[in-house]
Amino acid sequence: MKIIVHREKCQGHARCWAMAPDIFELDDEGYIMPGDIDVPEEQERLAWMGAKSCPERALDIQK
Amino acid sequence: METMAARPIPAHVPPDMIGNFSLFSSPGLEPTPNGDPQAASAVVHDGPRIFYSPVNTRDGKGTWVITRAQDQRRVLQDPETFSSHRSIFASALGESWQMIPLELDPPEHGKFRSLLNPLLSPKRVMALETAVRERASVLIDRIAAAGTSCDVMTDFAFPFAVNIFLRFLGLSDDRLDEFVGWANDLLHGDNVKRPAAARTIVAFIDELSADRRRQPVDDFMSFLVQSRIDDRPLTDMEIRGTGVLLFIAGLDTVAAAIGFDLNYLARHQADQQWLRDDPKRIVLAAEELLRAYPTVQMIRVATRDVDFEGAPIRKGDYVSCATMIANRDPLEFADPARIDLAREDNRHTAFAYGPHRCLGSHLARREIVVGLEEWLKRIPTFRIKSGTAPVTYGGHVFGIENLILDWSQEDAA
Ligand code: HEM
């Protein structure tokens, strides 16, 4: 599973990070690091919940 | 200077798009004992996705009202068409500087956000947690020692929020009551009190920045006067605009949130007990309470003519995105009128969508969660004191007053 990060849509709500800090890393301003995220199988559920928590719809899930 | 008298409805608004609804004066939105103004604003979901409200700002202007969360996202994520460029605060003084970053649009806006974001980032807020918790416990211990009833707003919510905030700005507590008074006059005062309070706050911020320029210390204003944007120092007006906004933005928003939350828990004993049984539930519950009881109406100005879902929005029109309306959109939230403290899929907009996402959201969340944790830890089962009625109000920023809680044995009988 892969998380597609639309960084231009990120506004720093940091809900994904609150859900899964190890999967969704933030920069010093509190916005998501650029680049899509490869998710190891055992973390898929958490990553899915993190992606679904974005108020801006900046995170897409690619199976 | 300001009146609530309606201005003429602009000719381009089709008569069948005019709605009989105002966040200021519709039923349940004017000051109401035992009211529920957020629930009262949800009536718009029985109507169209966009309509024109003839009197929907503090100074009696009309706005388009966007009812669906998805449409509010479109508006708030498109600052080129829907601008924040106003001078609400300054214009009340006959001046024209902007509150920063609130009244700037991208790309200018982003420069200031980049400067300020690190100061209130999620990680930075973690470092403030100890101070926040300590403040909450001291205040609540004092309340618990004093008796079995209190006025939550004046005894806890305001002193708590304002103290955290003054600490962030680098100000001491000595003048806390005075600051709360200014904020009250500014937000809820009449035509005389409001501009007077605005003037007082501006003078205070100007003086503080002059002080810090002469003698910098380790605080927010010193940071601001030493900062650079585009390789130049901030102008005096930029420092004022930022200082004034930071001063007022966190004052009564956090206090109101805590008030609405405790009001809810006082009236829903099963939910109160459910949180007591396992305080780890508070983090998720606080999100549901932010969804159900948000307090801010956002307003944008159209920069060009645009047809929006059938509405002929014209350049200069105001467009209202009320968080309490989006947060009860049935297309966005299953069973939105139901308050479910365990709700998971909860992408509410209490802190806005788009580039103006509340700069203080991470701090505000921490304050709310810690405030509820410490309250439930120290105060036994509480309810609204019999014979009293908290008064709620709608408007530009929703609030609650006279919230008297009681946890005596006698009253329980
Ligand atoms: C529960 C408490 C709070 C709520 C519900 C809240 C809500 C909001 C909302 C909806 C906005 C967007 C306004 C707009 O775009 O027109 C906003 C912006 C802002 N808030 Fe908050 N806020 C809260 C607490 C705080 C605190 C504690 C601070 C300061 C530490 C703060 C500082 C700001 C600032 C500086 C902005 C402007 C951001 C920008 O324009 O980029 N807020 N807030």
Can you give keywords for this protein?
heterodimer, A: 63 residues, alpha+beta, Alpha-Beta Plaits, three-stranded antiparallel β-sheet, globular, B: 413 residues, Cytochrome p450, five-stranded mixed β-sheet, 16 helices, 15 strands, 11% strand, binds protoporphyrin IX containing FE, metal-binding (chain A)
Please give a structural write-up.
The complex is a heterodimer of chains A (63) and B (413). Chain A has 63 residues and is α+β, with helices and mostly antiparallel strands. Chain A is built from two helices and three strands; from the N terminus they run βαβαβ. The longest helix of chain A has 9 residues, at 44-52. Chain B has helices spanning 37-41, 69-76, 88-91, 108-116, 122-146, 152-169, 176-188, 193-214, 220-226, 236-249, 252-267, 269-277, 282-292, 323-326, 361-378, 409-412, and strands at 32-33, 50-53, 63-66, 82-83, 149-151, 228-229, 232-233, 297-302, 306-308, 311-313, 318-322, 383-384, 391-393, 399-401, 404-406. In chain B, the strands form five sheets. A five-stranded mixed sheet of chain B has the order 2-3-11-8-4. In chain B, strands 1-13-14 form a three-stranded antiparallel sheet. In chain B, helix 5 (122-146) runs antiparallel to helix 6, helix 6 packs across helix 7 (176-188) and helix 13 (282-292) crosses helix 15 (361-378). Chain B is built from 16 helices and 15 strands. Chain B is α+β, with helices and mostly antiparallel strands and 413 residues long. The N and C termini of chain B lie far apart (52 Å). The mean pLDDT of chain B is 94. Classes of the chains: A alpha+beta (63), B alpha+beta (413). Chain A binds chain B through residues 9, 11-15, 17-18, 26, 28-31, 49, 52-57, and chain B through 73, 77, 113-114, 117-118, 120-123, 344-349, 351, 353-355, 357, 361-362. The complex binds protoporphyrin IX containing FE (HEM). The site of protoporphyrin IX containing FE (HEM) has 26 residues of chain B, from helix 10, helix 11 and helix 15.
